[in-house]
Amino acid sequence: MNPRILAALATATAAVVAVAGCQSGTGGDQQDPEYPTKRITFLSGFEPGGGIDLAINTTMKALQSDRIVTVPMAIDHLPGGSGLVAAAKLGRSPKDTDDILQLTSISSLTASLQKPGDYQLTDLAPVALLYQEYSTMYVKADSDLKTVADVAAKLKADPASLTFAGGTLGSPSNLALARFTTAAGVTFDKVSYLPLSGGETELALLGGNADVISGGLESMEFVKDGKFRALAISSSERLDAAPDVPTYTEAGFDVVQGSWRGVFAPPTMPAHALEFWYDALGKAVRTQAFQDAAKQYGWQVSYQSGDEFKAFLDKESADLKTVLDQVGLIK
């Protein structure tokens, strides 16, 4: 063959190899076109039946219904430490683990800020922010507390006269109540509060162990069944999913408190796996199944992945330190 043609072929081959190398992911990690090939486990750091379970099941349904992921998927519950027990398992994963993820919330970040330990949420690889949601104040349908103002008045007259329940200390539902009691003129340390997990909060109200609870819009099912009354929501404006529920601000209380749901990976997950999940989860939140759930539960989809999600977490950490200090949860 003509030597010039041989030289040209060699140059072209080298260029193709170079381009392939550049596209293989960060850190020289090689793409695996078959990934994932084994079951994917989503860790939940909370008891079954709560908002994290709802988020995981919705995400898995979206991933599988549109065949974005074709391997089996499952939930593994490791409750404790507001998600930090699960985070510790993820953090201790063997090098290059690529078949386990954790879906958690702002609660795990506040726990990290309150009680620094061996493994923090920020030690993990941030994969994606899926959506934001807000906390709603509920009372039983037959309660004499008809409005948020009624709750504030009774609380101010006698802080011991009401028992509140919500998520673990530092959770969004807890912070929403803490902001409310502060706005009502009662410091949170004077309030009787039950920190619960999963579906326990709703049971506390149904069973008479709490007078007022703070929880997600999934508890609106009890409103529809005539068992609960929703008094206020912690968003800045009314949500389409609950148009009849006023905001705390409308009721005269300066309370806005959001909560996000996000996905994290082991710190040494290979780059090709991380890239896969950046893309797959971005597709999942755009599926009809996920959008239907978002409309039903009042989720505000706000997808961010990788470095963008990490920047969000850095800012969120700084903001939370201020809020947690104000309500006496960190010193």
Automatic annotation (TrEMBL):
Pfam families: TctC. PROSITE patterns: PROKAR_LIPOPROTEIN. Residues 1-20 form the signal peptide. Keywords: Signal. The keyword Signal applies. It comes from the Bacteria. CDD domains: PBP2_Bug_TTT. Coiled coil: none annotated. InterPro entries: BUG, Bug_dom1. The keyword rRNA processing does not apply. Belongs to the UPF0065 (bug) family. This is Tricarboxylic transport TctC.
